[in-house]
């Protein structure tokens, strides 16, 4: 617990377990409602001066944070792998992405421009200014325990907001390390505050408080909806980065080896525990056999095991509940006629005995009645679905309440425009399994969320407009 520039202790502790080995790797102090109220007060006092600093002053802090993160790159990558299981390769990527968010928003702070608007009366002048929204409560998930924080705190601090962060108690250690860095670079007291513990009391304190002007949440759609409802009482601004169910479409004119590589990257990074990962792989009938053969050949070569071992491409899953949920979807699909090309059984023996592992799995003959086609999987299972026409696949891809990421592979230029315009998703990757970058707005439509993170749009989430009309 880091409140008002100090590390504080409570009587309750939460154990942090390495999901690959079952070892307890650390303990953190758990906070409740009263400590969270204290953090909100500290953030409120800090807002009165932090919001008045210049963009350049704030940028200096953000650049210092970037430099410290650079120094600790490998240490942080290992910590992420130890606390949530993903492969060290994926964790290194996450650290790089974290650094990029602080760096980008250090510069973006300087580009918060207002505007002047031509008035209809000659004796009036109209100006529109941008101001930080106020105290922000940020809630983040375990699957990207470092970069999801950077995507919120980078722009919030750049905009002049102060923050209370509640990371997931499943993987809170990366957050603690980041706050050590905030302390080392001398961020003023109360500008950033960290509370870890049961989500109920912490979120109640956030929601009841009229000081907290904004909730920025990344997590499941179910919890996101609750928070939107609860925000209504004090009319807080909300940013919601919620669940996804990405279609990955391979058209008959696609470069098949490229599409196979893309599907592997999109599906199996972080052992499939990503909001943007391919959840339905639609393959055109004409190339279905060739694609599945090539995909199987590559997937069978993927190694699963402790993420710290450089040879493993897939690490552990977060916990047994995650493994069971994935396995239930596989069992459901098999019972309704799906065939297993590889994987499909839990890994429980030998090196896997003490951890939570699931093998990369390919299902074929998947159809609409199966749970996996509708519910987020959050695990390494690739369901292949055959399609025959462009209209049919677009209709199927859009027939879901989620609208986060989508992907398609084609070499037809007209189709590239047609399909990207028709997909009802916040993000579309064309021949690109990883269309996400710090410069571009990340986020979803429909039940996948509200607002954007990253890009110039990312900082707008933490700014409000003020119109000033002067009569001369
Ligand atoms: P989750 O919704 O269970 O938890 C997310 C965070 O909210 C955690 O800090 C958790 O402690 C907290 N939380 C849980 N219940 C709460 C409540 N009632 N009130 C307030 N806070 C509460 O999600 P998770 O299992 O940590 O993460 C996986 C989910 O996150 C998936 O659905 C995934 O798609 C989504 N996700 C989305 C994005 C995105 O950018 N759209 C990114 C990563 C993960």
In short:
With 472 residues, this protein is an alpha/beta fold.
Description:
InterPro entries: Ald_DH/histidinol_DH, Ald_DH_C, Ald_DH_CS_CYS, Ald_DH_N, Aldehyde_DH_dom, Aldehyde_DH_Superfamily. Pfam families: Aldedh. Keywords: Oxidoreductase. This protein has 472 residues and is α/β, with parallel strands linked by helices. It folds into 2 domains: 2-243 and 446-471, Aldehyde Dehydrogenase, Chain A, domain 1; 246-401 and 405-430, 3-Layer(aba) Sandwich (Aldehyde Dehydrogenase, Chain A, domain 2), CATH 3.40.309.10. It is 38% helix and 22% strand. It has 14 helices and 22 strands. It has helices at residues 33-50, 55-71, 73-84, 88-108, 147-159, 173-184, 199-208, 221-231, 256-268, 288-299, 320-335, 390-398, 413-422, 455-460, and strands at 2-3, 6-7, 13-17, 24-29, 115-117, 124-132, 135-139, 162-166, 192-194, 212-218, 237-241, 246-250, 278-284, 339-342, 361-364, 381-387, 402-403, 405-409, 427-430, 445-446, 449-450, 463-471. The chain has a 7-stranded mixed beta sheet, sandwiched between helices. The chain has a 6-stranded mixed beta sheet with strand order 9-8-7-10-11-21, with helices on both faces. Helix 8 (221-231) links the parallel strand 10 and strand 11. Helix 2 runs antiparallel to helix 4 (88-108), helix 3 (73-84) crosses helix 4 and helix 4 packs parallel to helix 5 (147-159). Nicotinamide-adenine-dinucleotide binds at residues 139-144, 148, 166, 168, 199, 203, 218-220, 223, 226, 241-244, 275, 376, 404, 444, 449.
């Amino acid at each position: 617990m880091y409140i008002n520039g100090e590390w504080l202790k409570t009587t309750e502790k939460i154990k942090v377990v390495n999901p690959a080995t079952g070892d307890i790797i650390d303990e953190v102090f758990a906070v409740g409602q009263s400590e969270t109220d204290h953090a909100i007060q500290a953030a409120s006092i800090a807002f009165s001066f932090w919001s008045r600093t210049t963009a350049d002053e704030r940028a200096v802090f953000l650049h210092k944070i970037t430099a410290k993160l650079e120094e600790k790159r490998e240490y942080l990558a290992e910590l992420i792998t130890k606390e949530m299981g993903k492969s060290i390769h994926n964790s290194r990527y996450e650290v790089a992405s974290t650094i990029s968010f602080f760096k980008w928003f250090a510069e973006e702070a300087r580009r918060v421009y207002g505007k002047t608007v031509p008035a209809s009366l000659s004796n009036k002048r109209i100006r529109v200014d941008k101001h930080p929204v106020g105290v922000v409560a940020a809630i983040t998930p375990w699957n990207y325990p470092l970069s999801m924080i950077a995507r919120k705190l980078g722009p919030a601090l750049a905009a002049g907001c102060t923050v209370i962060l509640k990371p997931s108690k499943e993987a809170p250690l990366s957050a603690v390390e980041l706050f050590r860095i905030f302390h080392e670079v001398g961020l003023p007291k109360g500008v950033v505050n960290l509370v870890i513990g049961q989500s109920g009391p912490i979120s109640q304190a956030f929601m009841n408080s009229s000081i907290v002007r904004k909730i920025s949440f990344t997590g499941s759609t179910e919890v996101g909806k609750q928070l939107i409802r609860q925000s209504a009482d004090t009319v807080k601004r909300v940013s919601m980065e919620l669940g996804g169910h990405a279609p990955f479409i391979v058209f008959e004119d696609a470069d098949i080896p490229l599409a196979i590589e893309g599907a592997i990257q999109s599906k199996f990074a972080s052992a499939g525990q990503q909001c943007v990962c391919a959840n339905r792989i639609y393959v055109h009938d004409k190339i279905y056999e060739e694609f599945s053969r090539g995909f199987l050949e590559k997937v069978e070569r993927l190694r699963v095991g402790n993420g710290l071992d450089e040879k493993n491409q897939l690490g552990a899953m977060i916990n047994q509940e995650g493994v069971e949920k994935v396995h239930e979807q596989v069992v459901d699909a098999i019972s309704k006629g799906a065939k297993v090309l590889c994987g499909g059984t839990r890994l429980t023996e030998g090196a896997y005995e003490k951890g939570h592992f699931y093998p990369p799995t390919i299902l074929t003959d998947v159809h609409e009645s199966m749970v996996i086609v509708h519910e987020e999987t959050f695990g390494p299972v690739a369901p292949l679905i055959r399609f025959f026409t462009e209209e049919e696949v677009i209709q199927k891809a859009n027939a879901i309440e989620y609208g986060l990421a989508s992907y398609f592979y084609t070499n037809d230029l007209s189709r590239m425009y047609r399909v990207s315009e028709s997909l009802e998703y916040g993000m579309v990757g064309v021949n690109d399994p990883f269309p996400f970058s710090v410069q571009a707005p990340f986020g979803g439509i429909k039940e996948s969320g509200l607002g954007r993170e990253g890009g110039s749009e990312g900082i707008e989430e933490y700014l409000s407009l003020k119109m000033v009309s002067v009569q001369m």
